[in-house]
Write a structure and sequence with these properties.
Layout lengths: L25 H14 L6 H17 L4 H23 L3 H5 L5 H38 L1
Helix pairs in contact: 1-2, 1-5, 2-3, 2-5, 3-5
């Protein structure tokens, strides 16, 4: 006979996977984004896109309840980074040479602002699921 006990499912509860050991605190990803470029410069402008991919993979492995929102946030951030790259590439070469304004300083500032704003939005969205993941993980041991 089938059991008549009611089953419940908490929608925010992360699912256990075999990749659980790869999940890390989203704040660690933000701090690594700040510190790693001091030591090592990833190729292909990896400084700007690798953390966004990393936080999306982290949310997927964790089974984050807000995974779709995190992915959309990261995609919008990537598009904004690309738009800034293209926008600064449209500045005529003569304008850059004939001014004393440090255009590349502004480019770096704009890129870092977009990157960290995007990362913070995605990480804060992921923190609730990470807290549940930690809490549930302690019960599995």
């Amino acid at each position: 006979m089938e059991s008549k006990t009611p089953r419940y499912h908490i929608i925010d509860e992360p699912k256990a996977t075999k990749w659980d050991f790869l999940v890390m605190n989203p704040m660690v990803i933000i701090f690594a984004t700040m510190i790693v470029p001091i030591i090592w410069a990833p190729p292909f402008a990896g400084r700007y896109w690798v953390p966004l991919v990393w936080i999306c993979v982290n949310g997927y492995i964790m089974g984050s309840a807000t995974f779709k929102r995190e992915v959309v946030t990261c995609l919008v951030g990537c598009l904004a980074l690309l738009a800034v790259f293209i926008g600064f590439a449209q500045i005529p070469h003569e304008v850059i040479e004939n001014t004393t304004i440090g255009w590349f300083n502004y480019l770096r500032l704009a890129l870092n602002t977009i990157l960290f704003l995007t990362l913070l939005l995605a990480a804060f969205s992921q923190m609730k699921s990470f807290s549940l993941f930690q809490y549930i993980g302690e019960g599995r041991e």
